[in-house]
Amino acid sequence: MTIIYNKAEMLGFYIAGLFEGDGHIVMPTVFNNHNPRWHITFRIKNKPLAQKLLSKIGYGFIRYKTKHNACVLTVSQVKGLKVLINMINGKFRTPKINQLYLLIDWLNKHHGTQIKKLPTYLGHLSKDAWLAGFIDADGSFGIRYTKKAPGIKQKVSCRFRLEQRMVDAKTNQSYSSVLTLIADYLVVRLNTRTQKSTKRTYYIIEMSSRASIIVLINYLNHYGLLSAKLLDYLDWRKAAQHIIHKTNYTQQGLAEISVLKNNMNTGRSNFNWDHLNDF
């Protein structure tokens, strides 16, 4: 699944999607001469992925935020910023493209480059690795297994969820168009959810139908995830195969699904990063 990232173009699409989910660029103010700083934030368990991407970019460093259980891949050297732009320019799909444009403007003005600001990419989601990066940033996989009890119906389902803010914080531009594209591709409706603690409203994509599961599996089997989320996906896929083949309510199916559910997400204690050796 991950060998496809040996192709520079596909790795660029993946990084673009990952950045548009969990990245940002800090531009210098008019009162200082600091370089722009390009950041992607990772949970600390995904440090091996941050290190791998750092090696692929060839410039930058990783900063650790121990209080937040996170690390940040940062690139600020001009040579590194040029490498990144070459990798991701023309592959953005969200309003965060405006941050990229500001970075390109800065390089063109201060370092004599003539980088062209390529437009938002309009290719179909199934044809590149952008969505894999976006899912690694903001997607989640879960298994629901409700055991039969008096007054409670037995229920088994595989769920996927993708959540994103409604508007870009810096430009106030809507994420509606790209989230609608993702929802349509996964054969579901785009909904909204209001977070009780912050009162903020987010776009949310949730799916559990057999048709949607098949679409997502076909995509991720080709454009693999790279974060620790891959391990959750692989367990989720095993459970989903029972749903696809209608064996999820057999004794063997229920037993396997129960084990898979208990070892996913917060239940996972062991992490295997062999997939990063493929590219």
Automatic annotation (TrEMBL):
InterPro entries: Homing_endonucl (IPR027434), LAGLIDADG_dom (IPR004860), LAGLIDADG_Endonuclease (IPR051289)
Keyword Mitochondrion assigned: yes
UniProt xrefs under Gene3D superfamilies: Homing endonucleases
Any GO molecular function: endonuclease activity
GO annotations of cellular component type: mitochondrion
Keywords tagged on the record: Mitochondrion
Keyword hit for Mitochondrion: yes
Ranges where the Homing endonuclease LAGLIDADG domain occurs: 15-103, 131-239
Protein known as: Homing endonuclease LAGLIDADG domain-containing protein
Species this chain originates from: Ulva intestinalis (Hollow green nori)
